[in-house]
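Morning. Coffee machine broken again, so started the prediction first thing and wrote up yesterday's gels while waiting. Chain of 209 residues, entered below exactly as on the submission form.
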Amino acid sequence: MGFFHRIRTSSPSRTRSSRIRPQRVLAAICLAFACALTVWTLTPNNGGTAIVVAKSDLAPGTELKADDLTLTQFPSDVVPDKAFRSVDEVKGRATSAGLSKGSPLTSSTVLDQQALPKGSRDLLMPIRLADDASAALLQPGQKIRLFSSLPDGGSEIVVEEVTIARLVDKPEGITSESGQLVSVILSAEDARRVAEFAGLPISFAILPR
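Came back before lunch.
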């Protein structure tokens, strides 16, 4: 009786052990997978594409020098369209909008210096227009008149006539201000006039050709 009694009393424990063992194996597999995922996430990715980024925060209109820029590896599948691959491509050009440290430099974040005729004394200046919807009517080469809404009501002509050089695309994935940013061709005197209205909403009227 003692022998059979030991068999009966030990059988349930073996059954429970056999039921628990697969759960333990599954838990071990999950733990190993989680550890592997953590290591993969924390391991630097040395592959990708080298593109030009801002080495520090840059204000709109900054004339770019080599010290303002650096090359950084980006995963190939997230490299922005029209990103610059060489610092020499960007040196001497001006930013069309404010850039934070690490922001990629693209054709939409720098002004197109080719918009000015050779020998021209005019300037290229970035201006943010208040109305996105109306700005969709604009095209490079159009002449517009700039207005500003005044804090105490009413409006005032800022500049009688400027020429649209380019509409600047809003960079994807980067938080930007509302309103369409454009680069315009204007005289140094008109640029000083526009600067006096910094921080105020700027609207426009399209002038006849």
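The first strand starts at residue 49 and ends at 54. Going to sketch it on the whiteboard this afternoon.
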